[in-house]
Design a protein that fits this description.
This protein is of the alpha+beta class and 244 residues long. It has six helices and twelve strands. Bound molecules: 2-oxoadipic acid (OOG) and magnesium ion.
Length: 244
């Protein structure tokens, strides 16, 4: 069953076609949903993609409320999802993509996982479910809607990462404003949550991996040709252009 559900999600992503929610009918709880997520990521790795890190989700109150839960979730990032800073996102391969501003951490093994550097980032999410509508087990199984990410320039972690202004711009206009405080009060807590989840699930966090801390504002739908930029106080900017 796990493998059949992973196949359904994989085909939805490969064909850029939304599918109905599946967790309730399959009786999936969060643990079962993580099994599906693992099987789904395995399919990407089998096609030659490589693990690039992890992404934290539902780290903001707005998102928790949207899904009706109060727990943090995570998903896996592969190199196939990476967009160069200033690069192009191929929208034709996505269903109903949205962008959200985030903070990225660069992980180092020291020998325990620690933060080596921080960067402004953008995440592209693209739920494989119709209407971008899902339950908690649905979104976990769907690799937490992961579809793409952009990381801006790395820099040493500044003092006070907990209340930096964040802007999301589309075509030069500010469409969302927020603060890194929206990310669990301090994005470093998202990093700690990643370390905790890894410990609990037997995932080995590797040197050089990226940890996306979670959205600092609501996500905005993407349209062909959009220029998208995240601006994070003290950290700088990350951007991409959606294909037309
Ligand atoms: C789920 C992914 C959540 C975040 O930053 O909170 C997430 C979704 O909103 O589709 O990436
Ligand atoms: Mg996100």
């Amino acid at each position: 069953m796990i493998s059949e559900l992973a196949d359904r999600l994989d085909r939805a992503a490969l064909s850029a076609t939304a599918i109905p929610r599946l967790a309730a009918a399959a009786g999936l709880d969060p643990a079962g949903a993580y099994d599906v997520q693992r099987a789904l990521v395995e399919r990407r790795l089998a096609r030659g993609e490589r693990m690039a890190g992890v992404k934290m989700g539902l780290t903001s109150r707005a998102k928790m409320a949207q899904v009706g839960v109060d727990e943090v979730i995570w998903g896996h990032l592969t190199d196939g999802m990476r967009i160069d800073d200033g690069g192009v996102l191929d929208l034709t391969r996505l269903i109903h993509a949205r962008a959200e501003p985030e903070v990225a951490f660069l992980l180092s093994h020291d020998p325990e996982p620690v933060v080596r550097a921080v960067a402004p980032a953008l995440e592209v999410i693209d739920s494989r479910f119709e209407g971008f509508d899902f339950s908690l087990p649905d979104v976990i199984a769907d690799n937490t809607s992961a579809a793409g990410f952009v990381v801006g320039p790395w820099r040493p972690v500044p003092e006070g990462l907990d209340n930096l202004g964040v802007l999301l711009e589309v075509n030069g206009r500010v469409v969302q404003t927020g603060s890194t405080a929206a990310i669990l009060g301090d994005p470093r807590r998202a990093f700690d949550a990643a370390v905790r989840l890894a410990g609990g699930s037997g995932v080995e966090l590797r040197d050089g991996w990226i940890v996306l801390a979670g959205a600092a504002t609501a996500a905005v739908p993407l349209n062909p040709g959009d220029h998208v930029r995240a601006v994070v106080e003290k950290l700088g900017t990350a951007s991409f252009k959606a294909s037309s």
